[in-house]
Q: What sequence folds into this?
């Protein structure tokens, strides 16, 4: 083949590879842009976090405490039950340094009794027994998780806690109770919660600590920065 024929071929080859490179770069930038839209940054998630108010379920500490822990949780979730004693110990050992907040995040597709359990806790809360019901639900999770009539067993628990059972049933069925649970769920969704339990410390989502000691170290660091 003569050199006069080779030159045009080389030019065509160079042009083809240039086009391929440009297309590849465009694909990379589109992919980056798409990924950034699908995965909100931590800063975006923090801005979406609903501040703690007096309407939340709060235990320990106060609004002046250096650490506020918010847990989005599902009463039927086994992992949440596993974290229950860790959270309880955190409260017992930190005094007023830690304000602990429980928010409902029932994963109904996975846990069909989770919403009913949340109703029971909220109904107990109207008689100032939210945390007593909270503890009972986690401690007896295996007992009620597979029940077909969740309200009956929750009513029995209400009796054990010394609640006015008639009022409990009325509050359990009250549409405002369901609205309150859904409000927590929606706030979790806005904050980027995808599973349970999910913890926030002072509004920032954290990776779940694997033990009490790891959790305590996170708290100690926050307290040290504020002191």
A:
């Amino acid at each position: 083949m003569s050199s006069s024929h080779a030159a045009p071929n080389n030019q065509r080859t160079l042009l083809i590879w240039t086009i391929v490179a440009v297309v590849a770069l465009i694909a990379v930038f589109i992919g980056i842009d798409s990924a950034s839209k699908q995965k909100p940054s931590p800063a975006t998630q923090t801005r979406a976090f609903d501040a703690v108010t007096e309407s939340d379920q709060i235990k320990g500490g106060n609004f002046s405490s250096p650490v506020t822990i918010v847990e989005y949780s599902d009463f039927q979730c086994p992992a949440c039950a596993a974290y229950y004693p860790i959270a309880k110990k955190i409260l017992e050992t930190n005094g007023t340094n830690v304000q602990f907040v429980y928010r409902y995040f029932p994963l109904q597709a996975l846990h069909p009794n989770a919403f009913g359990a949340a109703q029971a806790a909220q109904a107990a809360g109207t008689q100032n027994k939210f945390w007593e019901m909270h503890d009972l639900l986690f401690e007896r999770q295996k007992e009620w998780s597979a029940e077909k009539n969740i309200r009956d067993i929750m009513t029995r628990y209400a009796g054990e806690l010394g609640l006015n059972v008639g009022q409990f049933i009325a509050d359990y069925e009250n549409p405002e109770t369901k609205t309150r649970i859904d409000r927590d769920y929606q706030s979790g969704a806005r904050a980027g919660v995808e599973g349970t339990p999910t913890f926030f410390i002072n509004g920032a989502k954290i990776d779940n600590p694997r033990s009490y000691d790891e959790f305590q170290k996170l708290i100690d660091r926050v307290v040290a920065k504020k002191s």
